[in-house]
Amino acid sequence: MVDRDLEKKIKEGQRRQHPRFRMNLPVTIQDGDHSAVSHTAITRNLSELGLSVDLRSALADGEHMIIRISAPFAQENPTIVAHGRVAWKKAGPRGFTYGIQFILFLGDGGNRLKRYLDSLSKPYL
Question: How far is it, in rounded angstroms, from Cα 123 to Cα 111?
C-alpha cells in the first residue's frame, strides 16, 4: 500500500530550496498599515523564506505585515524584524493556520536567521 501523504511530503521536500524547521518561537505580527492592531503567536515552523503560525484572527490573502520574531539564538539582538505577506491560509477549528512569506528583513536579521537555520541538522518536510 502506498502512503500518499508521505509521497507528497517527499516530493515537496525535493522541491524545497530552503528547508523548514519545526520551531516554537514567539512572534508578533503587526498589520502592514502600521495600525495599532497586532497579533501574538508561536511559530509552527520556520525557514529562510517564511514561517507558519496559528491565529484566531482572520488575515486577508496577500495582506502585508511587520513580523517580530523573538530569537533566543541571537543573543546580541534577540528580535528579528521582517516585512512579510500572507502567502496562504487554512481554516481550522480554532482559527487559521497561515503561511507568511518574508519580503524584506530589517538590518542583518535575514543573515542571522540563515546562520541559525544552517546550524540545525534536521529539517522536516
Answer: 18
Residue type, 83: H
Q: Which residues pair with 27 in a beta bridge?
A: 41, 69
Helix (H) or strand (E) holding 112: helix 109-119
Q: Which CATH class is domain 4-119?
A: mainly beta
Considering the chain, what percentage of its residues have pLDDT values greater than 70?
78
| Number of Cβ atoms within 10 Å of the Cβ of 81 | 16
Domain range annotation of the chain: 4-119
H/E run at residue 82: strand 79-92
Residue 114 contacts residue 72 (beta carbons within 8 Å): no
pLDDT band at 14 (very low <50, low <70, confident <90, very high): very low
Distance of CA 15 to the CA centre of its chain: 18
